[in-house]
Amino acid sequence: MLSRRDAIESVEVRLSALSPLPEGDAWVVYADATQERAFGWVIFYGSRFYRETGDVSYAVAGNAPFLVNRYSGEVEETGTAMPVEHYVTSYEARLARGGHRS
């Protein structure tokens, strides 16, 4: 079973594969925004510069949070077309139907 730290590290591995941000900036997990759920965690991320300054010129569009399943280790990216809760509810419903271990 994954710990919160393990889950964050799994997402950090995914972030390392993303296109780089402008020089000096980096993708970072917003650990204090992480939401714990029965299945695991909803983990948000974005620009380090935006996180540190709040300057919207550093904000990045399209950075959908990840869902990390504490039992299976599965890491699933959500989307940005709908509110985050839509993706979480859909994932939880899939788990309830036996789509993944919960």
Element string (H = helix, E = strand): HEEEEHEEH
The main sheet comes to: 4 strands, antiparallel
How many E-type strands?
Answer: 6
Q: Report low-confidence residues grouped into runs of 5 or more.
A: none
**In total, how many domains does the architecture comprise?**
1
Q: Structural class, from helix and strand content? A: alpha+beta
How much is the average pLDDT? 94
Question: Roughly how much helix do the residues carry, as a percent range?
Answer: 25-40%
Query: Which strand-content bin applies to the residues?
Result: 15-25%
For the terminal residues, how far apart are their CA atoms?
11 Å
Description:
- The chain has one domain.
- Helix content is 31%, strand content 19%.
- The chain has 3 helices and 6 strands, in the order H-E-E-E-E-H-E-E-H.
- It has helices at residues 4-16, 48-53, 84-96, and strands spanning 27-29, 35-36, 40-43, 45-47, 66-69, 75-77.
- A 4-stranded antiparallel beta sheet has the order 2-3-5-6, covered by helices on one side. A two-stranded antiparallel ribbon has the order 1-4.
- Strand 5 and strand 6 form a beta hairpin.
